[in-house]
Write a structure and sequence with these properties.
The chain has about 500 residues and is mainly α. The chain has 20 helices and two strands. The radius of gyration is 22 Å and the shape is globular.
């Protein structure tokens, strides 16, 4: 007898699906991501302002400090994800990493308030170096936890609507708590924001992980199959031009050579466009081609978002040149608070209902278009706080989609037995764009007449990303045989990935 995946066969896997309809379990599954999201929102909201107003670093140095984060993402998410796939400790494969992540994130958040004291204690070394090191430690903490936190949802929730809904819950909980921490910053200042975040991150990240029962056995449930080293390298082809740009710019900074940043950025963009034309001109039925399209769309969208994260504070300072540091800090906190508020409610109230009528990739593309239009307006039209807040609220629709739908789409396409590793690979389409923004646009920013030009670039990247996501093919319905063998998961074989 032939049936569809996730039908009666799936329902007869109590080790995997027993928690699927329990709202309390959904909240527990989402809490670690929300706790780490508080740390991330605090960093995004306060880091640039803190470095500029309290430690008086120039914009080029601030962008350089931000470049520490992607290095942590490349190493942390790949290593933690791969290790969590293959280990079982303290009753879980994801649990140990979430506990370590919560401890480290809480400590580094507190250290952000004492960068100058740390620099003096270390013999007066460069404040930029100290700030970069602390930012790197914070990003390591967040990154070694975010991947297992998302993989935990993929482990427990079955593919399809349940998984998409849980990722939407994750973003809603993260957004509500992100809004709360942003309001703390808006009302009491960035210092209190960092202090509150350092106290709340650990319990939200570690305690729920102790209460969720992880399945000991995982099954593939997809035709994508295992990932060899060669196939893994081929999967990453769409981000090769951006990676090459990052390597060249990094080497140039290391040896002190002034490189022509503009032509290098243009070359990378042209090569990426050529690769995209090849990918979208190929047969869409190949699962790897679908993954390529996802990575192209994901990478372009994060170029746009990270441009906003890094340069929002300098843009507000440029547009409100006579405002005090405290007022600028409050304006940024309010703008990002509205950004996170809309991102919190959009997945459950808007995006998930739309996915019941339209394909998830198309819903995500529409949300990215709204963010691209908002960033374009900020770059070209906004010169007062109310207009900034309206545009940031509109952009929150895209942000809510970006941190929820792509992960559900990707998890449904890959082998669950390698989910931690593959989510780490997926994260490269997040961290490489951040390095492009930090090293490339950070060096280009002083050469531009206005910071608004950077937001126009960000809007263009998001529109291009939406076009890429709109071309992501849907998953075919996969039949499977309802036999005794299909009703019993096969334990993960560590040699299957070779």
């Amino acid at each position: 007898m032939v049936c569809r995946i996730n039908c009666d066969t799936a329902r007869r896997r109590p080790d995997r699906l027993i928690q699927r309809a329990n709202p309390v379990t959904r909240v527990l599954l989402c809490a670690p991501s929300a706790g780490l999201g508080i740390a991330l929102v605090t960093q995004i909201t306060s880091l640039s302002w803190l470095l500029q107003s309290r430690y008086h670093l120039p914009v080029e140095s601030i962008a350089l400090v931000w470049s520490a984060g992607p290095l942590a993402g490349i190493i942390g998410q790949l290593a933690a994800g791969h290790a969590s796939d293959r280990t079982w400790l303290l009753g879980g494969r994801r649990r140990p990493w979430l506990m370590i992540s919560g401890l480290l994130a809480a400590g580094t958040l507190f250290a952000l308030l004492h960068l100058d004291a740390v620099a003096r204690a270390l013999g007066g070394i460069s404040l930029v170096l100290v700030a970069g090191t602390v930012a790197l430690a914070l990003d390591v903490a967040v990154n070694i936890g975010l991947n297992p936190a998302r993989a935990l949802i993929g482990d427990v929730m079955p593919a399809g609507p349940d998984r998409s809904l849980t990722f939407a819950w994750m973003q809603t909980l993260s957004g509500v708590l992100g809004l709360g921490i942003s309001l703390v910053g808006a009302w009491f200042g960035a210092v209190w924001m960092i202090m509150v975040a350092s106290v709340t991150t650990l319990p939200l990240t570690a305690l729920p992980a102790l209460l969720v029962k992880e399945p000991r056995v995982l099954t593939s449930g997809t035709t994508f199959g295992g990932v060899s080293t060669r196939r893994l390298a081929h999967m990453l082809l769409p981000i090769v031009p951006a990676t090459g740009l990052v390597v060249v710019l990094s080497l140039g900074k290391a040896v002190g050579i002034a490189l022509p940043v503009g032509p290098l950025l243009l070359t990378s963009a042209v090569l990426t466009a050529m690769l995209a034309a090849r990918v979208f001109g190929a047969r869409a039925g190949d699962p790897l081609n679908g993954t390529h399209r996802i990575l192209i769309g994901q990478g372009l969208s994060w170029v746009g978002v990270f441009t906003m994260f890094v340069f929002l504070a300098p843009l507000v300072r440029e547009r409100l040149r006579f405002a005090s540091d405290d007022r600028i800090g409050s304006d940024i906190a309010i703008a990002l608070g509205l950004f996170n508020l809309v991102a919190a409610i959009a997945p459950l109230l808007l995006l998930v209902p739309l996915t019941r009528r339209f394909r998830r990739a198309h819903v995500h593309a529409a949300a990215l278009i709204s963010m691209g239009m908002a960033f374009g307006c900020i770059g070209g039209l906004v010169h007062c706080e109310p207009a900034l807040w309206v545009c940031m609220a509109l952009a929150g629709i895209g942000w809510g989609s970006l941190v929820s739908l792509p992960y559900a789409i990707f998890c449904d396409r890959v082998d669950a037995r390698q989910l931690g590793l593959l989510l780490g690979v997926f994260n490269l389409a997040v961290v490489i764009p951040q390095l492009v923004v930090s090293l490339g646009l950070g060096a280009l920013a002083p050469l531009l007449e206005a910071r608004g030009d950077l937001f126009l670039m960000a809007g263009g990247a998001l529109i291009a990303s939406a076009l890429a996501w709109s071309r992501v093919p849907g998953l075919p319905v996969q039949p499977t045989i309802c036999s005794d063998a299909a009703m019993h998961p096969v334990p993960f074989d560590s040699g299957a990935a070779q």
